[in-house]
Design a protein that fits this description.
By secondary structure, the chain is an all-beta fold. The protein is built from no helices and 19 strands.
C-alpha cells in the first residue's frame, strides 16, 4: 500500500504523524498539534489531504475528526467514523459500518451488508444488499435497494427528523412495516396489506407483504413523509 499527504496550505511541522506495521496490519495516524494562544481574524486555510492506495481486498478502518472521508473500490470489512465532514463510499463490497456525526452521506454501488448511523446531514444510499440498517438523526434519507438484492436478515431504515424515500427492486420479498408519526405514506408497489392505521394518536402505519413476504423491512420516521417506489 502507498500513502501520500498533500499538505496544501499547511506545514508538516503543524502535525504529528505516526505510522507502524505489524504483520499485515498497517496503522497510519495524522493529528494536528495543539495550538496555544489567541488567534484573531479569519481562518480559511485548507487542511492536508491524505490519499491511501490499498489492495482491493482489505479490511479497513478509517477515522476523521474534521474533514471529508472517501472510500472507493475495496472489498472486505470496512469501518468508518467521522465527527465533522461528509462521507462518500463508492464501489465497495462486503460489510460496511459507518458512524457519522455531522455531514452528508453518499454511498453508491454497495454490495453486501450496511450499518449506517448518522446524527446530522442528508443520507443517499444505493446498492445490492443482504442486510441493511440505516439510522439518521436530522436530515432526509434516500435509499435504493437495487436489483440483485436479497435481504436475509431483518432490516430497518429510520429517520428522527426528515422525509424517507425508499426505492425497491420489484422482485424483492419482504414483510413491510412502515410508520410515520407526522407525515403521509405513499407506496407505489403492490402490497398484500395486513394492516393500515391512520388514527390521529398513532400517526400513519402500514404493514404488508411484498411478493409473498420475507424478512422484516421496517421504514420509520418521526417527523416527515415516507415514499416507497419501484425500480
Amino acid at each position: 500500500m502507498q500513502i501520500r499527504v498533500d499538505w496544501r496550505d499547511r506545514r508538516a511541522d503543524e502535525f504529528t504523524l505516526t505510522e507502524f506495521q505489524s504483520g499485515n496490519h498497517v496503522n497510519f495516524e495524522l493529528k494536528e498539534k495543539a495550538h496555544l494562544g489567541i488567534h484573531l481574524g479569519g481562518w480559511n486555510h485548507r487542511g492536508p489531504e491524505v490519499v491511501a492506495e490499498v489492495p482491493a481486498q482489505i479490511d479497513l478502518e478509517a477515522r476523521t475528526s474534521d474533514g471529508a472521508l472517501k472510500v472507493a473500490g475495496v472489498q472486505g470489512n470496512v469501518e468508518l467514523h467521522t465527527s465533522d465532514g461528509s462521507v462518500g463510499v463508492d464501489d465497495v463490497s462486503g460489510a460496511v459500518r459507518l458512524t457519522a456525526s455531522d455531514g452528508a452521506i453518499h454511498m453508491h454501488n454497495l454490495s453486501g451488508t450496511l450499518e449506517s448511523r448518522s446524527s446530522d446531514g442528508s443520507v443517499a444510499i444505493e446498492g445490492r444488499f443482504t442486510g441493511l440498517q440505516v439510522h439518521a438523526g436530522d436530515g432526509s434519507v434516500d435509499v435504493t435497494v437495487a436489483d440483485g438484492s436479497n435481504l436475509t436478515t431483518a432490516s430497518k431504515v429510520e429517520a428522527s427528523d426528515g422525509s424517507v424515500k425508499i426505492h425497491l427492486a420489484r422482485s424483492l420479498k419482504v414483510d413491510l412495516d412502515v410508520h410515520t408519526s407526522d407525515g403521509g405514506i405513499k407506496c407505489e408497489l403492490p402490497v398484500t396489506t395486513e394492516g393500515f392505521d391512520s388514527s390521529h394518536n398513532s400517526g400513519h402505519n402500514l404493514r404488508g407483504r411484498l411478493n409473498g413476504g420475507g424478512v422484516p423491512l421496517a421504514i420509520h420516521t418521526s417527523d416527515g413523509s415516507v415514499s416507497i417506489t419501484a425500480i
